[in-house]
Amino acid sequence: MISYHTERKIHLSVAVIATLSIATFFTSTVIVELSGSHEQIATVKRLIVMPGLFILVPAIAITGGTGFALSKQRSGSLVDRKKKRMPIIGANGLLILLPAAIFLDQWASSGSFDVKFYIVQTLELLAGAVNLTLMSMNIRDGLRLSGRLNKM
Ligand code: HEM
Questions:
Q1: For helices 115-145 and 4-35, angle between their N-to-C axes, nearest 10 degrees
Q2: Could you tell me where the beta strands, DSSP code E, fall in the chain?
Q3: Among residues 91, 82, 81, 86, which one has the least CA distance to residue 64?
Q4: C-alpha 44 – ligand 1 centre gap (Å)
Q5: Are 20 and 59 in contact (CB under 8 A)?
Q6: For residue 52, pLDDT beyond 80
Q7: Which residues, other chains included, contact 98 with Cβ-Cβ below 8 Å and sequence gap of 6+?
Q8: Is the N-terminal amide bond of 58 cis, ω within 30° of 0?
Q9: Which fold would CATH assign to domain 4-145?
Q10: Pocket probe mutation, ligand 1, options 146, 149, 151, max atoms within 8 Å of Cβ
Q11: Residue 35 confidence (pLDDT)
């Protein structure tokens, strides 16, 4: 059994890694779509899948797992709100971000920059923005719970 203190440290680290990963994928995608060549877009799409998803997927899973474990000893509206956001973050990740990243990588590497590529790319950016927002709210409420940020 690991202690609450250690679990909280793990939760903090993986939560920050997961949020920064999505922020990095989002920013690099916007920059390369606006000013990069097709080859550069394909490189970014490839890096988002590997090593990107290889880091993001476990980081989100461990964030959720440690979060729910911590919540056994904490209660209140901040915890409840964090709990409600997590299934949306997970579903958004697994059902939209993950398949979108894989399809976009395949299409970009074969040079298929057609309408479907840009529809899925737009969808990915929207889902990424939703997750970034929800994860930022979970960080804010987490820091309030741990007392690092003033409670409202
Ligand atoms: C992507 C989702 C999440 C992010 C980004 C996130 C982020 C954070 C952060 C940054 C902290 C502060 C840790 C510290 O200052 O040491 C925290 C604390 C906490 N989180 Fe999360 N969290 C997420 C999901 C969850 C979930 C699903 C739960 C379950 C309800 C949860 C429950 C908690 C609790 C109870 C604390 C307070 C620990 C304490 O100080 O006693 N988190 N979270």
A1: 150
A2: none
A3: 86
A4: 30
A5: no
A6: yes
A7: 53, 57
A8: no
A9: Four Helix Bundle (Hemerythrin (Met), subunit A) (1.20.120)
A10: 146
A11: 98
Residue type for 86, please?
M
- pTM score over 0.85: yes
Task: Measure the CA–CA gap between 8 and 141, rounded to whole angstroms.
Answer: 14
Yes or no: say if 59 and 21 are a contact pair by the CB < 8 Å rule.
yes
Residue 55 in tokens: 């880091």
- The pair of structure tokens assigned to 96 is 């939209």
- Give the mutation target among 2, 10, 11, 88 for probing the ligand 1 site: most ligand atoms within 8 A of CB: 11
Distance (Å, whole) CA 127 – CA 130: 5
What is the pLDDT confidence band of residue 89, given thresholds at 50, 70 and 90?
Answer: very high
- Please give the distance of CA 25 from its chain centroid, rounded to a whole number: 9
- Provide the token pair at 88: 């949306």
What one-character-per-residue DSSP string does 51-89 give?
A: IIIHHHHHHHHHHHHHHHHHTTS--SHHHHHHHHHHHHH
Letter for the amino acid at 49?
V
